[in-house]
Every structure is written in structure tokens, then in C-alpha cells.
Amino acid sequence: MITAIGGLLVGLLLGAFCPIIIPVAYSKLFSVALLACLDSVFGGYRSVLEDKFDNTIFISGFFTNALLAAFLVYVGDHLSIDLYYVALLTFGFRIFQNLAIIRRYFLKKH
Amino acid sequence: MHRFKKGHISIALVCAVLGFMIALQFRISMDQKASLPYQRLEELSSRLLDAERERDKLQEKIAALEAAVENGEAKNPAGHRAAENMRERAGLVAMEGPGVIVTIDDSKIKSKAGDNQNLYIIHDDDLLRVINELRAAGAEVISINGQRLTASSEIRCAGPTLSVNNVRSAPPYEIHAIGDAATLENSLKMRGGVMETLAVWGIQLEIQTSENVEVPAYKGTTQFQYAKPVGGGSQ
């Protein structure tokens, strides 16, 4: 847990002071990728609570989810199928579901 | 929590990536909100709203003043009639009567490669020719897309739109003209006339005669800024 939070803090600091700018054209893809990452992390935390955590699944899921989401939105953009909103809905939905399950675990524990 | 410890480093790495992305996204969205176009958009939209509110207020004022004028003129029938006549001639009164409604739209024909695209869309000179023909045929009052043509009205291309009385409108253009319906119709349809010329480029011109064509009043300003009457009476 501590390593996770430490990593998060390091990443936040890096991102805040790193002079990288994502071009406006790709900001959509980036936000979808970010949402996919958030979903993976919440899903990972949930599986820790369920005692089903698998390191490989977690890490591969984290990166492939993000990249695939961004890629699909990119392809959809070029085929004029707006998958952006679909991705937002799906990942948003899953994040809230994971949060609900995590909350229930905490309630059961205490 | 035992299994959790196995992949400490990898989880820290993943979290670092996540944190990095969150921070980056946060910064970018802050930048975007602070960027000039966004601010300008908000500023312009609020100014547009203000202007529209002011316009509505002024229109109410006009209506009130006109009502007051009519009240005053009602007391003096001869003067009232003369003033009314003047206003009708100046285009300040909405009119109705028999006439034609001409609808003109851009060409549906796809321009051939190498052809000048401009030939297939309506220009100010096309409309001017139609208007000219209608006037020659004795049209008494004319409006284009609800803009009354007065002595000082312009008909001019403004990008892809057309500006009449400094109000822009897009095709299709609807010309209302009051006059002898049959003469007006024939003037446009005559052989070698406007309709035939425009049909070559596929520009759609539709004439509809009607017993009751409505032409709205001129809504712009009627005050002269530069011109002054020459002294020595009106005659």
C-alpha cells in the first residue's frame, strides 16, 4: 500500500513538473487512456481485497487497457464512429462499480 | 495482503504512471481553460447576449413610438394620409397583395472536374438580375428573405451568404414581389430570360403566384447621417 501511494506521489510530481504538452488533437485519446488506467487500478485494488490479485494480470491489463482504449478511439475517429463516449461510459461505469464493491468490502471488514 | 507484496516495484511503477498521467491531464485541462480562445469565446458570447437584449429593448421602444405617432396623426386626417403615403413609399409599412414568391436555391448538379464551382452557386448578380426583371415587370414592393428592398438597400455577396439591408441570409432565397402576378411570372420565364440562363447551371428557380403575398416593413434605421436637405423649402 505504501509503495503504491509512494509511486503515485512520485508520478504526480513528475507529471506536474515535466514540460510535456499533449497536442489538442490527442487530448481526447489521452483522457480515454487515463480513464482506462484509473479503471485498471480500481479493479486491481478490488482484486486485492478479494484476494485474487495477480501481478501479471494487473500490469498487463493496466497498459493494454489504456493503449487499446486510446487506439480504438483513434480508429473510431478515423472511421467517424465516435467511440470516445462509449469508452467514457464503459470505463466510468466500471469504476463506479468497482468503487461500490470496494466500499462493501470495507463495510464487511469493520 | 501477503500476495500484494510480491510485486511491490511493479505496482509502484504502475501507480507512478497513473500519477504522471493524472498530473499531466490536470495541467493540460488547466491550460486549455486559461487559453485565449476559450476566454474569448465566453467574453464574446456574453457580449452577444448583451447586444441582443439591447436590441430587444430598442425594438420595444420603436413600437411604442410608432404607436404614439399614429395616435397623434389620427387627429389630423389629411396630414395622416400624406404621412402614411410617404411611409409606404419609403418601405416602412408592411404590405400585402397579389404577386409572386420566387424561391432560388443553389445548384444540385455536381460541378464537373475543372469547372468553375462559382457558376453553380447563387451570386449577387443573379439575384440582381431577377430583381431587375421583376421591377421592369412592374413589381411594386419586393423583399428578399424577409428584408424589404428600399431605395438604399444593397444586394451583395458576403462570403457564402447574401447581405441585404446589411442582414445576411443563406440560400434558399425567397423573393416576395407584389404586382401583377402573371406579368411578373412571365417576365422571369420568358425565352432567353433569367430563368433559362440560371437553369443552365442547374440553379433552381421556382415561381409561385399567389393572391396574397406579404412583404414586411423595412426594419433598419431611416436616419441620414451625412445627407442634409438643401435649404429653401421642400419644393
Briefly, what is this?
The complex is a heterodimer of chains A (110) and B (235). Chain A has helices at 2-17, 24-49, 55-78, 83-109.
CATH superfamily of the largest domain in chain B: Protein of unknown function DUF881
How do the helices and strands follow one another from N- to C-terminus of chain A? HHHH
Provide mean pLDDT of chain A, rounded: 88
Instruction: Supply the CATH class of the largest domain in chain B.
Output: Alpha Beta
Q: Biggest β-sheet of chain A: count, sense, barrel?
A: none
Task: Describe the strand arrangement of the main beta sheet of chain B, using strand numbers.
Answer: 3-2-7-1-8
**What portion of residues of chain B is helical?**
40-55%
Provide mean pLDDT of chain B, rounded.
83
Q: Most extensive chain contact?
A: A-B, 37 and 28 residues
Query: What would you call the shape of chain A?
Result: globular
Number of strands of chain A: 0
- CATH topology term of the largest domain in chain B: Alpha-Beta Plaits
- Count of distinct structural domains of chain B: 2
Annotation field: number of helices of chain A: 4
End-to-end Cα distance of chain B = 105 Å
State the helicity of chain A in percent bands.
over 70%
